[in-house]
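Are you able to produce any protein sequence you like plus the matching backbone structure tokens because I've never seen that pairing?
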Amino acid sequence: MGIFDFLSKDPTKTWGDASRRRLTLDLSRGTLNTIKLDDPVERLRLWGKPDNENAHKDGWFMYKESGLIVGAENKKVQSFGVIVNQCPHYESFFKADLTITHLLSGDIPVHGGMLGEHLIDKLNLQVHESDVDDVEIIDYANIAQYTIEIESFADGRIKRVNFYKQLG
């Protein structure tokens, strides 16, 4: 952080350019690459300037080339949303190059053709809630103090993986 960064209306304007990244979500450590949930938002500087303006005000840091949305509140990282398949709401995002790692399961590459139920089985997750409608399936599972949310199309293919600290 530069000495006069506090004068800038948008502190991310001084961050370097973002570039496409391979993403590794570590379910045991609560990290995406080297960024941990609850880290100060300033740590996102390592990934570069987000694609959206006013990310620091809105609380959403979008890295479209990497297929990533980082949620923040009170200047701390609160969630990771990783786009695995393009869909109408995320058409401007590239598909992420995502690997999920877990102490019990090892490294699991996640790709657009993968079914949500297949990923749940590979990660040995216990789903505690599912929301199903004509458009999508959302499965929720807890891992220690974290929640992983796997959003799939109605045909079962994964479209997005969200990861955050358990609420409440």
